[in-house]
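Re: [ENG-882] Designed sequences occasionally contain unexpected residues at chain ends

Forwarding the minimal case from QA. Structure tokens:
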């Protein structure tokens, strides 16, 4: 019986008490989507939801009333033309990024947040300060735009025709780090349709019990 359950749940580590009580119910991502395979640091990684239905959210994301400012609630639409994404859309971009080099998912958090909570598999860590002229050298920001985002610059003018589609996230609807980066890129002329925002960020990702991986 246990072997059959293990096959059904994809070798999840289900608590033995659930198995003994026959209380196991699958915790899929959506009705027809049990898990998603992505690439993280060049290795295949599975994103799934925690199968323990008694699992609770990470304490780092249990606070309801962080001081505003700076932790103010962000709008649903960040800027005209910038698409706001939910979890299923983020997962779709992560899947597409496995074979499509024009897509990049970016964790904008700074400090020890990524070290404490991990990051979304398939995302890369670029702290928001690395893209902000008030915190980083302009030439270093330009290097990121060219070498990592695929933009081009000639005679001081930016060309984003072949730039990558960027999906940004940070800590959640109360976090201004990824919104700051997106607004800064728009100011540089980065096309709005190539900028995506996962508003729920790590807060909602954790609330839904989705997989995170350590920062290396």
């Amino acid at each position: 019986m246990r072997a059959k359950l293990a096959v059904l749940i994809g070798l999840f580590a289900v608590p033995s008490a659930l198995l003994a009580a026959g209380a196991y119910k699958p915790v899929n991502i959506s009705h027809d989507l049990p898990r998603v395979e992505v690439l993280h640091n060049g290795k295949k990684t599975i994103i799934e939801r925690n199968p323990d239905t008694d699992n609770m959210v990470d304490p780092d994301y249990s606070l309801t009333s962080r001081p505003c400012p700076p932790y103010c609630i962000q709008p649903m639409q960040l800027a005209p033309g910038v698409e706001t994404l939910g979890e299923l859309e983020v997962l779709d971009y992560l899947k597409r990024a496995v074979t499509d080099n024009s897509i990049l998912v970016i964790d904008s958090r700074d400090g020890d947040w990524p070290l404490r909570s991990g990051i979304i598999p398939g995302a890369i860590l670029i702290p928001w300060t690395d893209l902000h002229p008030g915190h980083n050298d302009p030439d270093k920001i330009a290097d990121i735009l060219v070498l990592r985002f695929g933009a081009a610059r000639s005679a001081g003018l930016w060309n984003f025709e072949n730039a990558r589609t960027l999906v940004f996230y940070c800590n959640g609807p109360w976090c201004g780090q990824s919104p700051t980066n997106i607004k800064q890129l728009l100011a540089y002329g980065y096309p709005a349709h190539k900028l995506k925002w996962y508003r729920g960020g790590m807060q909602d990702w954790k609330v839904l019990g989705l997989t995170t991986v350590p920062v290396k």
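QA comment: On inspection the terminal residues look reasonable. Residues 1-14 have pLDDT under 50 and may be disordered. Proposing we downgrade this to a documentation issue.
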